[in-house]
Specification:
Strand order of the largest sheet: 6-5-4-3-2-1-11-10-9-8-7
CATH architecture: Clam
Largest sheet: 11 strands, antiparallel
Number of helices: 2
Order of helices and strands: HEEEEEEHEEEEE
CATH class: Mainly Beta
Strand content: 35-45%
CATH superfamily: Lipoprotein localisation LolA/LolB/LppX
Helix content: under 10%
CATH topology: outer membrane lipoprotein receptor (LolB), chain A
Number of domains: 1
Radius of gyration: 16 Å
Length: 201
Amino acid sequence: MYSRALALIALPAFVAAAPAPSELAQVQAHLAAIQSMTASFTQTDRNGKMLAGTLSLKRPGKIRFQYEKGVPILIVADGKSLWFLDYSVGQKQRWPIGGSPLGVLLDPSKDIGRYAKMMPTADPSVLSVEVNDPRHPEYGQIDMIFEKNAAGPAGLRLRGWVALDAQNNRTTIRLSDQRFNVPISDGTFRFNDPQRGGPRK
């Protein structure tokens, strides 16, 4: 049931005027200015199943999706690998961070200008960025949605994203209560191995 959670993440589709060339530079500046972030999230898979939880992100390479009580899964990147952990069946899966659509959020050295393009939106206050590496289609695609907000880094706020994996599994993440550049302990990104019978942390 939870195997598609890693496809991480459909915000509404937008159609309208072409984006301004400077908008991609603004997105790059926003990502470069984020050292850490916390937020609440809702996740919807392609079947409409919705889960909620809290997100913690610390660059480089660390992210944690802590799901609501009663959901026996955890997605966490520890700086080297992205892990999908299912405590109900004692299983874990590992991906290199660079091989995940989330790599664009986790790697501050990644030049998204090489892989990204702005997509038209109907709302001038909303920016949509499609990111994929044509040399590595197995990495999937991520469509990030930003809203213009003077209080956010570089005048933007990450609103969420839609991730499409190599098997065309679509997962939508919507964020709320975003807080940028707040202290987050490295211990947040540790976890117990489900194959050793330990509870999630």
